[in-house]
Amino acid sequence: MDLAQYVKTLNTGHESYPDILSYAVEKNVPVIDSDALAALKHLIRIKAAKTYLEIGTAIGYSGLHMLSVYDDSRLITIEKDEASYETAVENFSKYKVGSRVDAHLDDAKTIDLNLDEASVDMLFIDASKGNNQLFFDKFSPFVKEDGLIVVDNILLRGLVIDDGITGRNKRKLKEKVDAFNQNMSKSNYPTSFLPVGDGLLVISKSQV
């Protein structure tokens, strides 16, 4: 066991939704890694965040976990894949949180979200990785001052530092994700790049 695996084991707690996680593994649905999920939920507790805007619902796994932190929390979530969206809605209903979820079947790149600016405590970006900058620019205005913006998969399973990429699409993806990471590291926003899961970027809405 290496140090990264040791820390991941320590960070991984009880799984509240084993059936959904098993489904994700069986169907190859990408979901947030267990140690990154633990960090995400810890951030929610630290900030006492109760309203979440999620870009990329998938099958509702991360959304359920976010909603599990506080019984009075609410989730606005966007998913463009119809099959994933329908599965997520079923999962929200199964765990009796459907009344706390505003789920949109739409493309986050083009959706016109009817939401007041500075109205959510946390923005969680976990959709098409090459659009991280677009999603940040489009949805960060909805986050309250001193709220949080969290972006998953900023390391692309190591692809982001791979200089031997030959495939054009992978190379473009790497360049886009790296450009976003570099932009945020040089921005006026307080940021932390956490090497948990596939990399978690935590951004405070307040500028320095």
From TrEMBL:
<protein>
    <submittedName>
        <fullName>Predicted O-methyltransferase YrrM</fullName>
    </submittedName>
</protein>
<keyword id="KW-0808">Transferase</keyword>
<dbReference type="GO" id="GO:0008171">
    <property type="term" value="F:O-methyltransferase activity"/>
</dbReference>
<dbReference type="InterPro" id="IPR002935">
    <property type="entry name" value="SAM_O-MeTrfase"/>
</dbReference>
<dbReference type="Pfam" id="PF01596">
    <property type="entry name" value="Methyltransf_3"/>
</dbReference>
<dbReference type="GO" id="GO:0032259">
    <property type="term" value="P:methylation"/>
</dbReference>
<dbReference type="InterPro" id="IPR029063">
    <property type="entry name" value="SAM-dependent_MTases_sf"/>
</dbReference>
<dbReference type="GO" id="GO:0008757">
    <property type="term" value="F:S-adenosylmethionine-dependent methyltransferase activity"/>
</dbReference>
<keyword id="KW-0489">Methyltransferase</keyword>
<dbReference type="InterPro" id="IPR050362">
    <property type="entry name" value="Cation-dep_OMT"/>
</dbReference>
<keyword id="KW-0949">S-adenosyl-L-methionine</keyword>
